[in-house]
Amino acid sequence: xxxxxxxxxxxxxxxxxxxxxxxxxxxxxxxxxxxxxxxxxxxxxxxxxxxxxxxxxxxxxxxxxxxxxxxxxxxxxxxxxxxxxxxxxxxxxxxxxxxxxxxxxxxxxxxxxxxxxxxxxxxxxxxxxxxxxxxxxxxxxxxxxxxxxxxxxxxxxxxxxxxxxxxxxxxxxxxxxxxxxxxxxxxxxxxxxx
Length: 194
Hints:
The protein is mainly α. The chain is 78% helix and 3% strand. The chain has a single domain, classed as Orthogonal Bundle (Arp2/3 complex 21 kDa subunit ARPC3).
């Protein structure tokens, strides 16, 4: 529970910093809050990733929702999208065995990109269908011209951060304090040492 709350707080902090530093256009800003959802999913599994993603989406939901062009729909829709990323990151970590081999850092790059796919599809539906239906604005061109290129650049950058974190012994040792059993990456390193 502490890890989930910590990832939610980290994600909102990352959003606040990147939102104020990385304004690209009115209502469009850099958003590195997903880094916390990736960490939560890869280390905590699908459930922790999903709940952390919901928490990570609170501040972006407020800023792009009621305070942006998304109104009430953004407050509901954005956290759900980020939760999908955390969920998928947890699933991929289990399927790919992240942390169980010496190549986990390399696997983290494509796993991070793949973990964004459900949120990317959901975000397209959000802009192409939900916003026009409920709010009378948005549309697929908003997603394709503004949101998708920005999101792909952000996820590409975050994939390299995740590769570095998954390969970092100190980071893995730190996260092992939040679990009854150590993260799989840390277990693999311990067995190699024996």
